[in-house]
């Protein structure tokens, strides 16, 4: 038996009572660790769940096998499905199951192998669509903004937008407790940004630049739909794209595509650590958002549709006055 279970976005204490009941009966628990992050370390999660198991059994030595599941184990190996043929296995994912396609693949393999499965959902970043005064049914396709890793592109963005005195370059910029993740100079000269990024004479080669994310945002925009933008994470490198970098790449994409959709007066929403105890949301112009520090990941953006309703605009502006 395979249980695919969402653990929410804050920490392990967001798991539901139903999930706790299931975990008490499981032989193996896998915790997926590559599509998101949570605020508690793995050993704390393991300790918490095993304490619950022990407190609910007369045998104090009862302990469930708990294992981190990296991308290779989930996508390339058959361990989880094979064990689930003869044992009760829980596969825990941050947020809710199937928001990431890798989890869909696991379910399909279980079905192919004749393994019974059940799914327990939880809150995910998609729940942000109904918040902040924006109607959930006015959202279009969700997009992911991937990190531009071309050295020339990174150098261009770093030299023209980022603080030139930064010790960590964009490729190596990571977030941890000892590093300030704000990679942008708080004293940005906006005229310099405009002259260097938003002009028609870019001195870099953008022929192979991934821009489909921006095309999808534009398609939503012209159809009066909002866009939820998820930012790139690379857990193996401890890299989590911040909102500043994402906005910088949007500016670059606009200059290449020339859609006339985003400029320095365009107002966006930056959502930080949604559904956690430290959630913060900012609604401001691109010019001002580039100057802000947003703290720990994860960050997301919401770009409003062209025909945002009067009620939505009024609501969101009153919230963030």
From TrEMBL:
<keyword id="KW-0949">S-adenosyl-L-methionine</keyword>
<keyword id="KW-0808">Transferase</keyword>
<comment type="function">
    <text>S-adenosyl-L-methionine-dependent methyltransferase that catalyzes four methylations of the modified target histidine residue in translation elongation factor 2 (EF-2), to form an intermediate called diphthine methyl ester. The four successive methylation reactions represent the second step of diphthamide biosynthesis.</text>
</comment>
<comment type="pathway">
    <text>Protein modification; peptidyl-diphthamide biosynthesis.</text>
</comment>
<keyword id="KW-0489">Methyltransferase</keyword>
<dbReference type="GO" id="GO:0141133">
    <property type="term" value="F:diphthine methyl ester synthase activity"/>
</dbReference>
<dbReference type="InterPro" id="IPR000878">
    <property type="entry name" value="4pyrrol_Mease"/>
</dbReference>
<dbReference type="InterPro" id="IPR014777">
    <property type="entry name" value="4pyrrole_Mease_sub1"/>
</dbReference>
<feature type="binding site">
    <location>
        <begin position="124"/>
        <end position="125"/>
    </location>
    <ligand>
        <name>S-adenosyl-L-methionine</name>
    </ligand>
</feature>
<protein>
    <recommendedName>
        <fullName>diphthine methyl ester synthase</fullName>
        <ecNumber>2.1.1.314</ecNumber>
    </recommendedName>
</protein>
<comment type="similarity">
    <text>Belongs to the diphthine synthase family.</text>
</comment>
<dbReference type="InterPro" id="IPR035996">
    <property type="entry name" value="4pyrrol_Methylase_sf"/>
</dbReference>
<feature type="binding site">
    <location>
        <position position="9"/>
    </location>
    <ligand>
        <name>S-adenosyl-L-methionine</name>
    </ligand>
</feature>
<dbReference type="Pfam" id="PF00590">
    <property type="entry name" value="TP_methylase"/>
</dbReference>
<dbReference type="GO" id="GO:0032259">
    <property type="term" value="P:methylation"/>
</dbReference>
<feature type="domain" description="Tetrapyrrole methylase">
    <location>
        <begin position="1"/>
        <end position="147"/>
    </location>
</feature>
<dbReference type="InterPro" id="IPR004551">
    <property type="entry name" value="Dphthn_synthase"/>
</dbReference>
<dbReference type="GO" id="GO:0017183">
    <property type="term" value="P:protein histidyl modification to diphthamide"/>
</dbReference>
<dbReference type="InterPro" id="IPR014776">
    <property type="entry name" value="4pyrrole_Mease_sub2"/>
</dbReference>
